[in-house]
Design a protein that fits this description.
Layout lengths: L1 H19 L19 E3 L4 E2 L2 E2 L3 E4 L7 E3 L4 E8 L6 E6 L4 E11 L1 H14 L4 E3 L7 E2 L4 E5 L9 E8 L5 E2 L15 E9 L10 E4 L1 E3 L2 E3 L5 E4 L3 E12 L2 E5 L3 E6 L2 E7 L2 E2 L7 H4 L2 H5 L6 E2 L11 E3 L6 E2 L6 E8 L5 E10 L15 E2 L5 E5 L2 E5 L8 E2 L11
Parallel strand pairs: 18-28
Antiparallel strand pairs: 1-4, 2-3, 4-12, 5-11, 6-7, 6-9, 6-10, 7-8, 8-11, 8-12, 12-13, 13-23, 14-15, 14-19, 16-17, 19-20, 19-24, 19-26, 21-22, 21-27, 22-25, 27-28, 29-32, 30-31
Length: 404
Amino acid sequence: MGCRFLLLALVLFSSLYLKAQPSPYPQNYFRNPLGIPLQLSANFGELRPDHWHMGLDIRTNQKENLPVYAAAEGYISHIGIRPQSFGRFIIINHPNGLSTLYGHLNDFYPELEEYVIARQYKQESWALELDPSREQFPVQKGKFIAFSGNTGGSQGPHLHFEIFDTKTSKRLNPLLFGFQLADNVPPDILRLATYDRSKSVYEQSPQIFSLKKTDSGYIIPKQPVLRTGLNQLSFAIQAQDKVNGGGSPNGIFSAELFLDGESRLKFILDSIAYEETLYMNAHIDYRHDYKGGVYLQHLSIMPGDRGSVYKQTRGDGVIMLNDTALHAVRIEVRDANGNTSEINFMLQHDDSLSREGNYTQAVKRFVPNRTNTIIKPDFEMFIPEFALYDSFPSLYYRNNSSSV
């Protein structure tokens, strides 16, 4: 009887504890920081050179000096003026443990503008970083705080807006917080890429298939069965998202790989720290991008990827084909509003398509997750433990030449 009572008490306590935990994405806590309907030119997680986009770029109708409002109650905790990056920006700390950032601003509201100008004169510097006390500049939700602009590393008038955890500075996807943004448009999936995972992704060009949209999802045209001679393979996709009314294509929110109805791996662009944003180069086929190709987002984890966007459900996304049976592959692609698109096809290993001599271990290789070295009589090179995403051959030669 005592054990049953204890078990019941633990279940009730666990239930109450879980209910008491605050959601990381409180709905309708934040308001639109502009006074016009929310429209985006870029979303969170959009792919950029060497980084993910860490907030929303909100359209200002190609105008500057629109009023910018505090998204929620709090206090101005940081003011920055940088010649590049965010230009003139404000950070507000909120009582719920989150902060908001407003970037590419023109003038601040009068009291704050006077404070900033006085500090600029005192420090004899236009660029500065200030951390006022919580008592100096309290704000209420909807308070006018600045005018929108085009300062810093901006390529046109807009407001850059971020939400992040105040303690960890980890950026959160603002579209998960219930902003009013009309969107019932599912993502577009443009291409599917396959890789031979018996060797490094760095050493190959993927096989790329254009996709066709049908009533039952995306398919590989005229190829209901994808036959391959590979025993180990992985996939990547090119995909984009739009909202109602069109506009520029934005990044997708998540993609999940299923094999024979079982989830294998997914990535979710819901929260990213600035310290890990360079792992975007492991999330995409970096070699393909470097050579001028489109962004291909991997549905497998690179061996040296230490970021947090991938969620393993079973394995690392690399598919092992040890038989010649037909296997059902499904890839689900979602936006932050839950709109979903799918790719569906059958996968089959075919021995007649196998390539001989694909890969050899004869050459010394640099590999991820360990220190790599080349040590010669007159030359040494060290690559730190976590510097590589994937392996590649170590090549060293010496050219004896003398200047005349």
